[in-house]
Amino acid sequence: MHGTSSHAKKTDMRFLFYSLMRFLAMWPLQWLRVLGHGFGVLLFKMARSRRDIVQTNLRLCFPEKSATELHDLTRAHFVNFAQSLIDRAWLWHAPLEKVQSRLIWVGTEEAFTQLSADTPRIIFAPHFVGLDAGGLAVTLRLKKPAAFIFVPQHNKLMDEWVNQGRQRNGNVKPYFRHEGVKQIMTGLRHGELLHLSPDMDFGPNESIFVPFMGVSAATVPSLSRFARLGRARVLTLVTRMTTQGYEIALADALDNFPTDDVVADTTRMNQVLEEAIRRSPAQYYWVHKRFKTRPDGEDPVYKKAEISR
Length: 309
What we know:
Blueprint: H1 2-25, H2 29-46, H3 48-61, H4 67-93, H5 96-101, E1 103-107, H6 109-115, E2 121-124, H7 131-141, E3 146-150, H8 156-166, E4 172-176, H9 182-189, E5 193-196, E6 208-212, E7 215-219, H10 222-230, E8 233-242, E9 245-250, H11 262-279, H12 303-307
Helix pairs in contact: 1-4, 2-4, 3-4, 10-11
């Protein structure tokens, strides 16, 4: 009986959640952004441990900013973060015609030609709050499936919703981190486009230390290694939230990349990312503990944030 009751509750929760998302998908974008603004301000005030993480990241990355500027930037980030969460309602449940009207591509003809080529290529898509909007835009534009590396969500309902949303139009080939890289490399060498977001701290075993915003950061060197092993060109895709939806900015393929120096390549990747961040600093994914892994001998930077949990 207990198992049946528990299953019924999960089914009810799933129904209510999906009903809410479909309901929100019908709202005008301006209304959703107002809702997201209020939700973001609430998160900023209530989510103390995450706020501490964001402020630590911003203090390290923008040492030239005053305390007031960092406070305002933190608040703006929580607003953008919350708005992007609510935007997933229309991204994943609204009619595709409406979705496409809100995803505006920006780039050169050369970049778009490279995007649609049949040769191996990788999209470097850093973790801005519009990451999912950009990923969906890619699948809607391409004529054949794009490969994505999925990381499971902690909550089963969220995991299901995210996976279904990211694959809503079926033009996705999913890979999972725990499956290793052999399948990914095989697909890449056969002309598959790989959507890659390696700008996170996955611990010392998977990372090398290179500068990021002036701070030594454990960084996954997969962009350089995948590009070299797959003989792939690398394009950069940055998705920025706008009042009309999202701007999908595609840059031309990086020249002289990759090289034989994985450290130099990964440093260059971070430099490209830094330029994008400085254009819209509140929209980068600062809630992640980007500097959790420290070089030997350096003290943790999130000590206060972790104590406050």
